Amino acid sequence: MELLNNELRINQLENKRKDVEKALQNCIVRDSFLDDFEKRFCWSNNALEGNTLSLIETVNLLDYDEVQSGHTYSEYQEAKNVYAAIKNMLIPMEQVRIDGDWIKKVNGYVMGTSGEYRNHDIYVGNLVEAVYYPPASDKVEELMKAFEKTVNIKEKNIDKLLLEIAQQHIVFERIHPFQDGNGRTGRILINQQLINNGLPPISIKPTGKYRQAFRRYNNSGDLSQMVYILAKSELESFDRILQQESRYLLNRDGRNVEVKSKLRATEREIDL
């Protein structure tokens, strides 16, 4: 039984899709969204793995090379590595074919390594309780070749697309093909799949719901919570784009009452 009914959010995405596509044709709106996205996603992608840098601290590091006490060197390096992966692999938001080499290259940026698949067995969890034992290392190559055959999704229906991406994200994380950086690599992979289907990339908020979605699937095979996270995150990207467009039009047209009304309506929807 599905935990969540995502019909409302899917309908909201479908209803806003054309407006978002039109807004992204404006290079100023597009560039403004991407500038926000690449830093927001860098922060959230690392925060989901326990990195304690805040969004503002991440921005200050990336824009001004500013660091503060209370964080480790490795946390700052993680931010720089993930940012490099985003800039080199996702921006300028173009469609590319995903294959094993592409995935390895992403992980190489994320970890600052050559990005090769792991050559020994691992467990996911801690020394007291292993949450999950991924497949043996000698199975990784074969499993990833099978994964490559399904990863290049083409689906116009947002509902079906998000369901397929949710399924594949869980498959990828269960394979756990790399020694480290699998989560961060997998979420970059999600964004390339979205881009390949004409949708803007997303930043998943670093809350416990993301981990719960994996447990929910492991316990019952229910994907609805992962789809919910993807749909909610995509709606947030949609609303940021529409907000950027409203601000652009407001600045261009001056005191336009209709545009101001649109901006206020959009700002009520988005959680800044």
UniProtKB/TrEMBL annotation:
Fido domain segment(s): 98-232
Keyword annotations: ATP-binding, Cell cycle, Cell division, Coiled coil, Nucleotide-binding
Source organism per UniProt: [Ruminococcus] torques
Residues the record lists as binding ATP: 180-187, 219
GO-annotated molecular function: ATP binding
Coiled coil: 3-30
Residues at the active site: 176
Keyword ATP-binding carried by entry: yes
Record-level GO BP terms: cell division
Transmembrane segments: none
Name recorded for this polypeptide: Protein involved in cell division
Pfam family, one: Fic
SUPFAM superfamilies: Fic-like
Site-annotated residues for Important for autoinhibition of adenylyltransferase activity: 49
